[in-house]
Amino acid sequence: MSVNQPTLWLRIVALGGVALCLTIAACRRQPSTNLVGRAAPDFTLNDLDGNEVKLSTLRGKPVLIDFGASWCMPCAMAAPHLQALHEKYEREGLRVIGISLDERPDDARAFVRQHRITFPMLWADPNSQSVQELAEAINLGPIPRTLLIDSKGVVRADLTGLHPPEDLARELTKVGINTGA
Fold first, then answer.
1. Residue 100 and residue 109: Cα distance in Å, rounded?
2. What residue segments make up the domains of the chain, in order of their start?
3. b/e per residue, 148-177, with b = 16+ CB within 10 A?
4. Handedness of CA 121, 125, 130, 136 (dihedral sign)
5. Are 149 and 40 in contact (CB under 8 A)?
6. What phi and psi, each to the nearest 5 degrees, are found at residue 80?
7. Which residues have C-beta within 8 Å of that of residue 31, sequence separation ≥ 6?
8. Are 144 and 74 in contact (CB under 8 A)?
9. Rounded Cα distance, 106 and 29, in Å
10. Distance separating alpha carbons of residues 79 and 115, to the nearest angstrom
């Protein structure tokens, strides 16, 4: 049976749409372990330049941590919003940190360049014991996953999936950032 070209393209577009919907639906699922009200687990990871970053050194500042990857379409859609939050609220003390779950740091670097990200991007080396311990401690599931941590190191919001920028801005009030929301 032969399929004419317009029909083939329609099938491809339809399958792509279904795949996108399934990806977004899976990413909107809540983690089975919600960390709100708990102390954020401390971790040490390297940024894309090889410098160590330890979460506990940021105590005293509110922190937004976003777990994502270059292959994750909702993560790519969230990147400009995270960058905008970084630019808008850095002066108020907010620290935005991305944690790339890419298998290779070069993929994370390309994502940073493509999305013009200026906040620190850490690489979660999948072969690292500390990364495996962190993933287990927070029950890392679907991405993007965003944690908002207050200045005392307590998780105040634990979000999975793609969220509208105004929802993220509203959540920032939970960590002491005045957003006007």
1. 9
2. 5-175
3. bbbeebbbbbbbbbbbeeeebbebbebbeb
4. positive
5. yes
6. -65, -35
7. 138, 139, 140, 141, 142, 145, 158, 160
8. yes
9. 28
10. 7
88: tokens are 């808008």
pTM for this structure? 0.80
Strands 95-100 and 63-68: parallel
CB-CB contact of 98 with 120 (8 Å): yes
Each residue's pLDDT, cut to its tens digit, for the chain (181 residues) gives 455 565 555 455 444 444 444 444 444 444 456 889 999 999 999 999 999 999 999 999 999 999 999 999 999 999 999 999 999 999 999 999 999 999 999 999 999 999 999 999 999 888 888 888 888 878 888 899 999 999 999 999 999 999 888 888 888 988 888 877 5
Residues 150 and 5: their CA atoms lie apart, in Å, by: 55
CATH placement of domain 5-175: 3.40.30.10
Token pair 């777990």 is found at: 67
